[in-house]
Amino acid sequence: LNVSQSYRTAYHFQPTKNWMNDPNGPMYYKGVYHFFYQHNPYGPLWGNMSWAHAISHDLINWVHLDIALVPNEPYDINGCFSGSTTILPNGEPAILYTGVDANLHQVQNLAFPKNISDPLLNEWVKWPLNPILSPPDEIDPSFYRDPSTGWMGADGEWRVVIGTRIDHQGAAILYKSKDFRSWNRSLSPLHLSNITTFWECPDFYPVMRNGKSGLDTSVTSVQGKDIRHVLKASFNYQDYYILGKYDPLSDRYDVDADFMKSKGWLRYDYGRFYASKSFYDGEKKRRILWSWVCEGDTAPDAIEKGWSGLQTIPRSIWLSKNEDQLVQWPVKELEKLRTRKVHLENKKLKGGSMIEISGITASQADVEITFSFSNLKHAEVLSAEVVDPQILCTQKNATTDGKFGPFGLLVLASKDLTEHTAVFFRVFRIANSFRVLMCADTSRSSLKPFIDKPIYGAFLALDPRYAKISLRTLIDHSIVESFGGEGLACITSRVYPVLAVGEQAHLYAFNNGTQSLSISSLSAWSMKKAQIV
Ligand code: DQQ
């Protein structure tokens, strides 16, 4: 086996070959999940942007269909860029996407299914009156893209937002329409912020204050005191979000705190994760999030592999109990792929020790582990309240011993640990409270040259005196997706081992702190291959 072929995944969504980036227009329609994505049909690098299309009954096993949109009209000849789907009141789904026209201007276009009674929606027809929106005079035509899914306002009119920049600020401009075909720009953007100069792929949706159910925005306006609204924007190679109160009549959006201003700079994922998009799943009444996970290897590597880019496992997403952040968890359907289980309980992990978790395929696994300690009195003291968790993870990496931690998992590890990716926690004390740091350290993940091997970090918003620290990690050959504290913080990485490949990959639980702790429970499964045909 050529090692470059070992990086293909077994249960993450991928085309059979070539380039993939942003998720586009995911939806649930007449019993079928649809997924579109930015795709280059002709090669493993970005270019010839098209909307490729796949369908599923469970979000895990997929069938690739024909490409839905290719750049072949004057208004999209330089690319069919990202966009969204909206299900209109007559039950018809519409694609709203960005075209890059012959002058390299970004414009917005519509497409509809050729045959509405085909549940697979295999063929799409571009609207004859495209483009339906061109950049307003004061907006730079190369920064005007990625229309969101439409939502219904209190006046019965549709709204969408488009990512742009206004006066050198990142912005989501708002448009309104009665029929989804002719649109008027609202005087004020939904939101703008000087923290960055340009936004891509804005997403805007309601979440409930109690419970995990999602909300449908395409029927009637969703409002009330038990509803909060999330605005996500993609910039700086990361997906940030804010929470606030939205009035569906005036379109006023009062945010709790602006981007990168709230505690911990709220992000969906503190690793490699970009241009995500959510949709409402009417079958299971939940909101689901998809995201592109780009490569950390080089263009020549992509050419050798013949492909580039992964999608995360779709995640359910909802508002936390404290209502100050979102929580994510891989869709339940993934668990159908679990096979060969190992389980242990109440296993002591002394300071400076490690155990191997054997009996599963460590290169293709799902692991859930929960830790507990008797007494945190001797936790390391952290002086400043405000620190960047990524810097903290870099200074205090998995090999630097502390008191409570570093403890966690070594995944995709070679037997002698020459290669490994560490996903771990450290507990700090700040005055009378505690702070839990979650890290993913890929710095020793590969002996291959020219690989990007970052150390990622996030704070886990839980109090370790009352809540156990848990970790779920999805390992799939070249991707590691980790969920700390039952989804309070997520970190996704890409890794390219050359030793820890296939059956040569090992999995360990470790404690490099001086204080001992216990694994209150650990369950790990080998994962079957998803059917992606
Ligand atoms: N990717 C698309 C754009 C979008 C960017 C082009 C984000 O529409 O802004 O492939 O990754």
Quick summary:
Strands 26, 28, 29, 30, 31, 32 and 36 form a seven-stranded mixed β-sheet that branches. Strands 9, 10, 11, 12, 13 and 14 form a six-stranded antiparallel β-sheet that branches. By secondary structure, the protein is mainly β.
Topology:
Blueprint: E1 18-29, E2 32-40, E3 50-56, E4 63-64, E5 80-87, E6 93-100, E7 106-113, E8 124-126, E9 144-145, E10 151-152, E11 158-166, E12 169-177, E13 183-185, E14 191-193, E15 200-208, E16 227-235, E17 238-246, E18 253-255, E19 274-281, E20 286-293, H1 299-305, E21 307-308, E22 310-311, E23 315-319, E24 326-330, E25 338-349, E26 353-356, E27 364-372, E28 380-381, H2 389-395, E29 407-413, E30 421-430, E31 433-441, E32 455-460, E33 469-476, E34 479-484, E35 489-494, E36 506-511, E37 517-527
Bound molecules: 2,5-dideoxy-2,5-imino-D-mannitol.
